[in-house]
Amino acid sequence: MHAADLVAAWEQGSDRTPAGRGECLLDTVGIDPVRGCGLSVGQRDALLMDLHGRLFGTEVTALATCPACSERLEVSFHLDDVRARPPGDPTDPVEVEVEGYTVRARPPTAGDLAALDTTAPWPDATRWLLERCVLGARRDGREVAVGELPEVVRVRVEARLAEADPQADVQVVLGCPGCGGTWGALFDIVSFLWQELDARARGLLVAVHDLASVYGWSEADILAMSPHRRSLYLELVRR
Ligand SMILES: [Zn+2]
Description:
This is T4 bacteriophage base plate protein. The protein has helices at residues 3-13, 18-27, 33-38, 41-56, 110-115, 122-133, 151-164, 189-215, 219-224, 227-238, and strands spanning 59-65, 72-78, 94-98, 101-105, 134-139, 142-143, 170-175, 182-187. The chain is of the alpha+beta class.
């Protein structure tokens, strides 16, 4: 990706929700928002992992806090370690039969996440998402509203949807060298990728500032330079 495109994606996504940032990031690889919204969350995340690999490499480093002893630790893993293979097309609906209920549902899409009210309390957001993803529920030949489904049915449907789109919910097992405890943490590629993009874009704009102040070159010209040339001039300026 060209430096100018990277800065443009960062600028567009800066004041958006995580789902909106995911949209901006997909846009940089030629997936327009309409197509992006139709992808399952796992399909979107797999594409964002590819993008991370191309821009920032396939090794990911994160900071975590041990829930048992509060030790801060740095965790590194390879993106291939968190790749999940869906059993079929994750945008296809699944049918779940449990406790006499038959429920047809589809895994959440990137568009669902973009439409989700992120300020809503978590149980409400989960319910809202399920209502959107359930295509129909019946019992004894009668239509049943999502709100009327017993919890055991809702839990089973959610589990079945997670199985159909495993890349959407990847847990990384972390181990604490201090107390030996292990725990699972959600791997969120959007926030990982965004942090890297944020750092890179800010670094580029500081470089623009430093070079423009000395040479008077335009932002566009500085961003269009090869990284090698830009860093050589920066070395001269910052000496
Ligand atoms: Zn610990």
